[in-house]
Amino acid sequence: MTEQALSYVDTHFSRFVEELKDLLRIPSISTDPDYAPEVRRAADWLAEHFRKLGFLKVEVFETEGHPIVYAEYTVDATRPTVLVYGHYDVQPPDPLELWTSPPFEPEIRDGNLYARGACDDKGQLFMHVKAAEAYLKTAGTLPVNLKFLLEGEEESGSVHLAPFIEAHRELLAADVVVISDTAMFAPGVPSITYGLRGLAYVEVELTGPARDLHSGVYGGAVENPINVLARLIAGLHDEDHRITIPGFYDDVRPLTEEERRTFRELPFDEKAWMEEIGVSAVRTEKGYTILEAITARPTLDVNGIWGGYQGKGAKTVLPAKAGAKISMRLVPDQDPDDIVEKTRRYFEQKTPPTCKLRFTSLHGGHPVLVDTRHPAMQAAAEAMARVFGRRPYFTREGGSIPVVADFKRLLGLDSVLMGFGLNSDAIHSPDEHFGLDRFRQGIESIVHFLERYGQRPT
Amino acid sequence: MTEQALSYVDTHFSRFVEELKDLLRIPSISTDPDYAPEVRRAADWLAEHFRKLGFLKVEVFETEGHPIVYAEYTVDATRPTVLVYGHYDVQPPDPLELWTSPPFEPEIRDGNLYARGACDDKGQLFMHVKAAEAYLKTAGTLPVNLKFLLEGEEESGSVHLAPFIEAHRELLAADVVVISDTAMFAPGVPSITYGLRGLAYVEVELTGPARDLHSGVYGGAVENPINVLARLIAGLHDEDHRITIPGFYDDVRPLTEEERRTFRELPFDEKAWMEEIGVSAVRTEKGYTILEAITARPTLDVNGIWGGYQGKGAKTVLPAKAGAKISMRLVPDQDPDDIVEKTRRYFEQKTPPTCKLRFTSLHGGHPVLVDTRHPAMQAAAEAMARVFGRRPYFTREGGSIPVVADFKRLLGLDSVLMGFGLNSDAIHSPDEHFGLDRFRQGIESIVHFLERYGQRPT
User: Fold this and answer.
1) B89 is a catalytic site residue
2) Is B221 in Cβ contact with A294 (below 8 Å)?
3) Chain-chain contact of A324 with B226 (C-beta, under 8 angstroms)
4) Do B352 and A283 touch (CB under 8 A)?
5) I need a labelling partner for B197 at 20 to 30 A (CA). Which of A105, A122, A411, B324 fits?
6) End position of a domain, from candidates B365, B388, B421
7) E runs forming strands in A28-135
8) C-beta atoms of B319 and A327 within 8 A
9) Which residues, by range, are in coiled-coil regions (chains A, B) (predicted)?
């Protein structure tokens, strides 16, 4: 049954790519309310696709935000049930001028498919759809019971997903969650992610004078909110590049010696990594390697800053307002709500009497660690070993998939993070792309995984 | 002759306002190259206006930037010659949404004329045109020889003005320069400005990674250029709110005891000043009052900052670039070129190896002090005393008019800064306006000034 499915993948692969391109043409940007109709269009496209494949139960669920697509194919109550999670929304594409081809006009160059969402996550979720199709169109059935839960708000904080899961525990009941929204360790080096960082994302705005002022007439006595904001941001790190928010590290689980040894064994080429992103020097928290710092230690980054005049030439304004978006990546056992509150206190206490503070929590997510001995983790490892010719590494990733913590908390389910992206895929950046070789390897790995996990006793 | 001229002003005042509104409708924004045709339209409008008034020599001179309008009415070689300087370009009007009425659709509300440029400087330069008209249309002549030099690049650094002056020394030969581009000390409290701050305006841009990165995947090892920029900006002031750039204060002439006493005597209401701009606390350089800090001490303000994602919602980007516009107000005897170089060295030395610096000097201007005993200063003081019923104060202003230093350096001329603005006129801000009472008082003061200065032996 698996051989036939793999053969089907081979025969129909170029059509799979064309279908993915259709999905990528829909600009389903969830962070910008103006694109809400496009997000819905992507949801409807997927639901229609599942129906055509013969999924027995397909539904587009309304939420107070963007819709959730659910699809189900039940084979047999004695089989294990796999819940596939993915997201069909995408990041905003700006800055548009840095794209080689337009972000929503998919284009293949040198074996890579370029488009916003090609890798994150339309391309990766679609591999699961096509693996299911390969069984359904050959064997007429699946090795497991299969459920799809595809959301449209991952890039805007998955605000309505946890309530949905909570309200649909029975519908979503399963034995394990499988997610392809992470990266392989390196080209040709498969990996399964067992750790993810959490996230706390806030926005701060400082208001000084009631209106923009002339910097010549008022400069020297009216404290400038941009200068104040710079001071508050600068104060967030100390000389060792540690974060100064009081209590920030209180709940950080230290890396074990075993974990640090594994980190050292991973084939990580610091020089190549730096070259790929065009930096000639790095800065990590004192005492940690690059790989540790980007996957297993908490961080703080300003994601955006604004204030005053940004146009051409010189404008001598002393602005009324300045603002910034600031996010922190968290590690076990930090709690995003706790970190947001500690950050709020930092800004409240440091804002001088010359300015007023507006502090907003935009979203957060819990960090995750999964046991690598889980049967589905092992089945995934075997499946990937078949396709790639080598066993995957178990690794940690720096990004956040808050829903993984939700699945554990609300459904009691562990998640297998079998990702086929690469860090060089430029997700969240101009020229995002996905290698067609990895799109194919992903589908094949999932075909193998479904077979292997289906053979296990439930 | 003066009485007739004043009576003419009275009779024709409402037409003067309508003519000014026509000039204000032209969006002559010099900082934005897209508006170059509008800047030229304003120049042509003024030249045509001078011709209609019977000015004997009117010319629109080309420069490599925006044109310069010159107009001349020579009466008699034995009379003193007054050179009026003004600028017909305006600041950008953004943020547009904060204007009560559109910036280029002049509207009168409560006796104030609202429009970009109403006060700075179209309204003020136009007072000189109308005072000249009042004599020409009644006496058929003027009490002095009068020259107008009106530029279109004041708000973008007057780049081509000094070379023009240098190339036209003979044409511009005069006994004194008169400029109305400053503010009165307070409503009903006339003043003549004898000191102006200079300006050094720079732009810095930091580049970290070669492209925008995912803050989850790279955060913790790739130093964020926004965080670095915030650190460099924060480091520009110390605890006493003094500027830390090495050598910054080397050439600052200390305030004399006499000057500090005059500052204390001025009717300056700190509480009202703070209320007017909506701040509940100020921050000055340690040891200086508000008035000293905003007029007679050097400052540093960030006029604009940008980097990363500024849109709605949350984007988890670690940006490739961050930038800021930074300006310093200078006092005698600081030199703008010297300060720019010291600022460049600060940024070069503080930029860490994780980032690349691009440092650009946008423009600068020298600080100025004029002797209050100058005959034209005294004539102006007497003229304003006649109109306002009280002698004006001699004061210093925090803003910059770099051309004043150029007139001294290139033509050997002092400038009389008789301004009729108010600090509450919101120049450079939304809802810029000019009181029609001051527009009238300004014209009348100039009529008196021309008479009095014309009686003096040259």
Assistant:
1) yes
2) yes
3) yes
4) yes
5) B324
6) B365
7) 57-61, 68-73, 81-87, 107-109, 112-114
8) no
9) none
Give the C-alpha separation, A88 to A121, whole Å: 6
Contact by Cβ (8 Å): A101, A193: no
Return the pLDDT at B401: 79
Taking the CA of residue A310 and the nearest CA in chain B, the distance in Å comes to 6
Same domain, A23 and A137: yes
Overall average pLDDT of the B412-435 stretch: 95
The residue of chain A with its CA nearest to that of B283 is A221
Q: What is the CATH number of the domain that holds A217?
A: 3.30.70.360
Q: Which of A181, A277, A400, A401 to mutate to test the interface with B (most CBs of B within 10 A)?
A: A277
Structure-block tokens of residue B419: 């301004």
| β-bridge pairing A299-308 and A321-330 | antiparallel
Do A80 and A209 reside in the same domain of the chain?
no
Whether the predicted pLDDT of A149 surpasses 60: yes
Whether B80 is in a domain gets the answer yes
* Domain CATH number, residue A406: 3.40.630.10
Within 8 A of A240 by CB-CB distance, chain B residues are: none
Q: Same domain for A417 and A344?
A: no
Which residue in chain A has the smallest CA separation from B217?
A398
- Judged by CB atoms closer than 8 Å, whether chains meet at A311 and B423 is answered as no
Does residue B36 sit in the same domain as residue B150? yes
Domain range for residue A80?
A: 2-196+367-454
Asked if residues B173 and B166 have their Cβ atoms less than 8 Å apart, the reply is no
Dump pLDDT digits (tens) for B30-71: 999 999 999 999 999 999 999 999 998 999 999 999 999 999
Domain assignment present for B271:
no
Q: Are residues B53 and B68 in the same domain?
A: yes
Residue B269 maps to a domain: no
What is the rounded average pLDDT for all residues in chain A? 95
On chain A, the residues whose CB falls within 8 A of the CB of B197 are 216
Tell me which residues of A are annotated as active site. 89, 154
A356 with A377, same domain: the answer is no
CB contact under 8 A, B398 and A220: yes
The domain tally of chain A equals 2
Query: pLDDT digits over B223-282, tens only?
Result: 999 999 999 999 999 999 999 999 999 999 999 898 898 899 898 999 999 999 999 999
Do B351 and B403 have their domain in common? no
* End residue of a domain, out of A346, A364, A382: A364
Enter the tokens of residue B452: 């009095």
Closest approach of B425 to chain A, Cα-based (Å): 10
Do B354 and B448 share a domain, yes or no? Answer: no
Tell which phi-psi region holds residue A163, choosing left (phi > 0), alpha (psi between -120 and 50) or beta.
alpha
- How far is B34 from chain A, CA to nearest CA, in Å? 10
